[in-house]
Amino acid sequence: MSGRRGAGAPEPADVRIARLAGEFGGKAPEAILAWALAEFHPDIAIASSFGLEDIALIAMMADIRPEGRVFTLDTGRLNEETYEAAEAVRTRLGVRIEWHFPDRAAVEALERSKGLYSFRESLADRHECCRIRKVEPLARALSGLRAWITGQRRGQGVTRRELSLVEADAAHGGLLKFNPLAEWTDAQVRDYVRDRGLPYNRLHDAGYPSIGCAPCTRAVLSGEDPRAGRWWWEGPEHKECGLHGGDRAAAPGQRKAA
Predict the structure, then answer these.
(1) Which residues does the annotation mark as catalytic?
(2) 76-116 confidence digits (pLDDT tens)
(3) Is residue 258 part of a domain?
(4) Number of domains in the chain
(5) How far apart are CA 206 and CA 196, in angstroms?
């Protein structure tokens, strides 16, 4: 796969993304990851919440480029099991994790005015909490990058069924966003983690296919959508927090993706 064109007019962004998506189709995640790291390092990073997918990607990156970058968002409401998984990844895989936190004043103002569980009052209130704890810190984490990598998969829920292997992140200035595991199934991810003996979040063994903030995540029941445990008091069309697509809880001034 060639990342650069010869002399002449630069390739339009939408044309480049469509071309790359076509070239990446059917490729192993390692191949996509290797191309992205070769093209953009050090201005590219894996965004990790330390779920199975993210840990698989970090292990792949550690093989390809050990100095590759990983960042995560500490919302202040994470499960203890998530911190344990993060520390196990740091020590076992030898990666440096860039932690980003919410703005202290914004969190204090929210909790003083609306209490500790305002996110359960309405979708707007939940978006406000996600914006403060996730969306704004993500914008800081992405500042200075030219691309980022996520562990999203098409099989994770209705909001991700059309997920592309590479896309333009309109909410963050058109950064390229790579989703190397988009075509993988849940079984492929689990097999990869198991076969390599990688550390993982213990909540996955307790029925949590998707893990976010502790008060906003529960185990799923047999037959439920994989993201049914996220914000379970809302409808199935609202299973995003604004970091990716779907209902995008965009921060003020950020353009929502169509």
Answers:
(1) 241
(2) 999 999 999 999 999 999 999 999 999 999 999 999 999 99
(3) no
(4) 1
(5) 21
